From TrEMBL:
<dbReference type="GO" id="GO:0005886">
    <property type="term" value="C:plasma membrane"/>
</dbReference>
<dbReference type="GO" id="GO:0005525">
    <property type="term" value="F:GTP binding"/>
</dbReference>
<feature type="domain" description="FeoB-type G">
    <location>
        <begin position="1"/>
        <end position="72"/>
    </location>
</feature>
<dbReference type="Pfam" id="PF02421">
    <property type="entry name" value="FeoB_N"/>
</dbReference>
<dbReference type="InterPro" id="IPR030389">
    <property type="entry name" value="G_FEOB_dom"/>
</dbReference>
<dbReference type="GO" id="GO:0015093">
    <property type="term" value="F:ferrous iron transmembrane transporter activity"/>
</dbReference>
<dbReference type="InterPro" id="IPR027417">
    <property type="entry name" value="P-loop_NTPase"/>
</dbReference>
<protein>
    <recommendedName>
        <fullName>FeoB-type G domain-containing protein</fullName>
    </recommendedName>
</protein>
<dbReference type="InterPro" id="IPR050860">
    <property type="entry name" value="FeoB_GTPase"/>
</dbReference>
Length: 72
């Protein structure tokens, strides 16, 4: 395991209170596309297909690359 971009393949999940509801939160590996080419992107793509909501966190120093996925 390492803490470098592009090295996380699994996902992390937890729960939080959202109003009166208990919400599941899943952190998936970073991806820039909906067409996976790596194992990590495949994990992220599968999770995106099953979620009710997506929170897309992007790096503002490279908006052109990062907003591609946001706009899909």
């Amino acid at each position: 395991a390492s803490n470098y971009p592009g090295t996380t393949v699994g996902y992390t999940q937890g729960f939080m209170k959202l109003g009166e509801e208990r919400a599941e939160v899943i952190d998936v590996p970073g991806t820039y596309t909906l067409e996976p080419t790596t194992e990590a992107e495949e994990v992220a793509s599968r999770m995106l297909d099953t979620g009710d909501m997506v929170i897309n966190v992007v790096d503002a120093t490279n908006l052109e690359r990062n907003l591609y996925l946001t706009l899909r």
